[in-house]
Amino acid sequence: MIVHIALFKWNKGTNKISIKNALADVRKLKKKIDGLVSIKCGENFSKWNEGFTHAVVVLAKDHTSLDAYRKHPFHKKVAKKIESMEEKSIGIDFED
Q1: Are 74 and 39 in contact (CB under 8 A)?
Q2: Cα 51 from chain centre
Q3: Cβ(35)–Cβ(64) below 8 Å
């Protein structure tokens, strides 16, 4: 199983509706790509957040499935939207 985690710190002034809509679009990718087990998105409530307020966790069957997720045209569109909203992000991938 491949685990992909993305953490987001948003630009000042980014509104909650834009964030909610962007994460809803990320969730839609599960139905579009074979090999994705789950996509979870949510708001961070940990006090140790260092300004990262939201996360995406993708579980993929294998490296090929994660690669398909990254290369999918809808993902590229959503990623571009998120990049325009984020101040900073962190990505972590590992095999479990």
Answers
A1: no
A2: 16
A3: yes
Q: Is the CB of residue 55 less than 8 Å from the CB of residue 42?
A: yes
Q: Which residue has the tokens 């809803």?
A: 24
Segment 38-48, tens digit of pLDDT: 999 999 999 99
Which of 35, 85, 34, 43 has the alpha carbon at shortest distance from 60?
35
The structure tokens 């491949």 sit at 2
CB under 8 A, 24+ apart: contacts of 81-84? 81/22, 81/25, 82/8, 82/22, 82/26
Tokens, residue 43: 């708001």
With 0.90 as the threshold, say if the pTM is over it.
yes
